[in-house]
């Protein structure tokens, strides 16, 4: 049976009598385990009569599954001692008449139910704090944890071990999952350590204040030396007292003197214990953005280009200029400029001693000795620290937290396709940028140097907003230049590239964001963030289901890669998947993928096979004719021709609506039936058997969702027969129990300007957190 350390404890517990009582009952309890159980239960608000806390099922569950795994070091062989102490405490409470036989039996049974989970949590590397982890290690190596000198000697020797040996001993490596998972686990350990210390100090303070407000009846206070809240004692001093007592308890529950060592000369062995871990921040922010945009069950994002191997990813990071500058700052702090020095301190390349003198921090050691996994975690730390610095800098200050992370997340979804700085800036400034507009970045912008927007005509071409002028260009220039400055700074980390107006993530940047997204989603590769290799193995129906939600340029690229992988044999499967689309709100989005494919490149036999299909028949016939072939027109059903006409008419309707939004005056409402829509419909109706009414019926039968809002506009057709047929189609759609929407997702809002006024940026800097 072990004994507690001789260091005074801030808690007044009747431990000796409890141990003596158990020994008289024939149960020799482990003293350290019993002290931890009594102390944590007392700090959880358990009633004490007299001096010994009374367990309940709720408190025992918190003790075994939360508090002991957060604060106490123990080898696996010692764990039964903690369970025995809880059971003995239940027995004593029952014997004292404060727990009847039924509740006592239920409590003991509950302890046994919780035992397996308790063992798992106490032995899991994903539940440790630094103090618990080092306490476990030194115990496993036979060090007397109650001997402060022995603990200090062991920690000194451990710090002198080679980096690789230390990492192996810590056991924080992750075999499966994202490459940055090991760094994530280290960051969580630091974050958990920091929060555990704060929570323990808070529990001490809450109990002490509660006892001062309502002194316990018939017994001494649990924390007899607690400050009495005297008005002349600064709050900082009182908080420091509770923080110090939390350290005392931590030492008793882990190893003597360990708290001061890990907060002092060996703080580099416990990164993140004293400050927020950057990696935790960026994972949380990116996960929140993804959840806000796609919800809890997202479709897969398009796969971006990634480094060929972990080693290549590490090499790309080592080749980036910014981490090289930070490593140089760690080696020679006096030679670093202020910006680099601040970033080195924020990212852990530099730290300071008690006198404020800088010296190399834990990140410098990772940079020097770490493998690809450690470097991936370090790179995410650097990214978060750099984003925080950009958020505070005058020329790149954020208007709202996480603003600079948004463009990176947007670029990830583009699957490596270069985007326009001008277009992205216009979107961020809330200009009404056509979502379906596709244009390459403007090539007239100089490849290097400060960013300048293209001329108004080229700016209109790249944004899709007609008739922009020099005043519009001047309005957008500050936002575009600011975005370019942010991306140029991020390029120093090797994660982004800007060449003139063209902006993209590098494979390194995509890999880091993918790791962060995976970690934010729980670390499992559930298919939401696939790689290019994974997507190339997908069945056609899975590919189509995902690609319908992707940006058009990304979808075109991935579909092309998928077809290239399979050659001519891929076309029949892909066309069959598109033909198998069920009627519903997504049917048009799936058919829109046809516009991203060069159907004239499909094998003729694959197109002939689709002529009779009610969805693709019209598209297949047109593609064959464009190749100079003569398809069997009689094989194409009228439904397929209706689908083709519907897609063409809907494109006209959307274009007319968008043109109005971009060019009309503020108070000018959208026409009930745009002239372009009427003209296109009348032309199609002239060639349709039965004219306009029959065409409207065929369109509604082909796709009631896509045709519904075209029909709504056509209710204002000057031909009464057409108007009545349109009303019938619109009413049928509205009465359908599956059509709950009251406005079409592609319908333009009536009152809109060419652009909204950009939100004014506050002159005051705003923090990201």
Can you characterise this structure?
The chain is mostly helical and 769 residues long. It folds into 6 domains: 15-125, no CATH class; 150-269, no CATH class; 278-396, no CATH class; 405-509, no CATH class; 538-636, no CATH class; 642-735. 57% of the residues lie in helices and 2% in strands. The chain has a 3-stranded antiparallel β-sheet. A hairpin with a 2-residue loop joins strand 4 and strand 5.
Which features characterize this protein?
elongated; disordered N terminus; 5 strands; two-stranded antiparallel ribbon; mainly alpha; 6 domains; 769 residues; 3-stranded antiparallel β-sheet
Number of strands: 5
Rounded average pLDDT: 89
Arrangement of strands in the largest sheet: 3-5-4
Structure classification: mainly alpha
Q: Give the terminus-to-terminus CA distance.
A: 48 Å
User: Which strand-content bin applies to the residues?
Assistant: under 5%
Helical residue percent?
A: 55-70%
Helical stretch tally: 34
Q: What value does the Rg take, in angstroms? A: 34 Å
Quaternary organisation: single chain
Largest sheet composition: 3 strands, antiparallel
Based on Cα principal axes, name the global outline.
elongated
- Unreliable parts: 1-6, 737-769
